[in-house]
Specification:
425 residues, alpha/beta, seven-stranded mixed beta sheet
């Protein structure tokens, strides 16, 4: 166990001190115990290093809102322990951390396994909406629905003790750190960078995973030059828990065969299961959309950050709808809004996004532009305002902007808040 700071992570070691290091990264809402059923076999060959995400498993609650931040904290922890080169296997967000390390610190990663992971996790809107749900209702809705996301129905029915253990892992997570991790996943997208991952990579996925399924796995395999696919039957998202034997055998085979560390060769296990043949690309990875470029005189174009902030605040679905409805007549206006409203004003450091949302809600009510209010109520929730705080903002507008305008605003906000904060049945 470790003493952690804001720059390091809670960790534990298992296995012989002189063995090469193999890191196991956890999924969102879990602890390092999700790998318990792999440890006895892995420590025969490796010194296994496990870590907890911030606010998970009793770790100090120092939120990290970017996958790169989590990777940096992991490296700082390893640097303090004198660990320079390692194998890495991570599940879901743990896999994203491993991919980030392989991209930014390729000399540190000897071999990589991405378990139930993805180059992009669903849509940014999905994870920001999850953050809104947790901020409003706490983690109970996430805990209650975790079994259906993580396990097949048959396993959940047959293993009630494991299901309850999974639910308790989520319940005991710090909500702020869970929300921050959702933000990290919302912003994570390495689809155009996969070709730069230069280490041998195992992409392992449960055949019945509905969170990051076989389609996500094939995108990873298609993009990473030296990658192989392993499809685990009878497993959903937490394959290491649901099918521990199969996952352990696959990890043993991959790291024994693929990792040839210059300082310490890893002995091969006695049993070597067969992996699938390399998978050919089955789908073209969409290229990044070209953004308009404005001429500049030594000053960065505000359009790209403006579009990023606009999407982060209003959501992909809203922005996609606006841009799809635009035509030759309105394109210039949309570019102006993106470049100057979002790329200039919203990008300034003087106010945080919570305050900017508060000001925007007030201004929309005061000016009577209620047609934009619903989108900005959603944005306010996404930017961290609670329903109670939005209520107080609208009460304040009732005093200074008038009862009728505030009354109409309350009706719109009530509808949005009910839709976005009601836990799933």
């Amino acid at each position: 166990m470790s003493e952690t700071t804001q720059q390091t992570l809670q960790y534990r070691f298992d296995g012989p001190e002189d063995a090469p290091v193999l890191i196991l990264g956890p999924s969102l809402g879990t602890t390092w115990h999700m790998w318990d059923r792999q440890i006895s076999a892995l420590i025969q060959n490796w010194r296994v290093f496990r870590f907890d995400l911030p606010g998970h498993g009793g770790a100090p609650a120092h939120p990290a809102t970017a996958v790169g931040d989590l990777a940096d904290r992991l490296l700082a922890t390893l640097d303090g322990l004198g660990v320079q080169r390692f194998g890495y296997a991570g599940c879901s967000i743990g896999g994203a951390i491993g991919a980030d390390l392989a991209l930014r610190h390729p000399h540190r990663v000897a071999s990589l396994a991405l378990v139930a992971s993805s180059a992009r996790f669903g849509s940014a809107d999905e994870f920001r909406q999850r953050g809104v749900m947790v901020r409003t209702n706490g983690l109970e809705p996430m805990a209650r629905t975790a079994p259906e996301r993580w396990f097949t129905a048959g396993f959940a029915a047959a293993q009630p003790t494991i299901v309850e253990w999974a639910v308790q892992m989520v319940r005991t997570t710090d909500p702020g750190c869970y929300i921050a991790a959702c933000e990290a996943l919302a912003a994570f997208d390495i689809r155009t960078e996969l070709g730069r991952i230069g280490v041998p990579t195992l992409v392992l996925v449960g055949a019945e995973d509905q969170v990051t399924g076989p389609g996500d796995a094939r995108t990873l395999v298609a993009g990473i030059p030296d990658a192989r696919l392993a499809l685990v039957p009878g497993a959903s998202h937490l394959a290491p828990v649901e099918q521990p034997g199969a996952v352990t055998d696959l990890l043993l085979t991959h790291f024994s065969a693929a990792w040839q560390d210059t300082q310490a060769a890893i002995p091969a296990p006695v049993f070597v299961p067969q992996l699938s043949a390399p998978v050919l690309p089955v789908a073209e990875i969409t290229a990044a959309t070209e953004l308009p470029v404005a001429p500049s005189e030594g000053r960065a174009d505000p359009y790209p950050p403006g579009m990023r902030i606009r999407r982060e605040v209003l959501g992909d679905a809203h922005v996609d709808g606006v841009m799809a409805a635009s035509d030759d007549f309105t394109d210039d206006f949309q570019e102006l809004v993106t470049r100057y409203a979002w790329g200039e004003v919203w990008a300034r450091d003087g106010l945080d996004r919570r305050m900017r949302s508060t000001v925007t809600l007030t201004a929309l009510v005061a000016s009577g532009h209620l047609e934009s209010l619903a989108a900005h109520v959603s944005a306010a929730l996404r930017n961290g305002l609670t329903p109670a705080e939005i209520r107080e903002v609208l009460l304040q507008t009732a005093v200074y902007c008038g009862i009728p305008a505030a009354g109409a605003a309350f009706t719109i906000a009530q509808t949005v808040i009910q839709a976005e904060t009601t836990p799933p049945a």
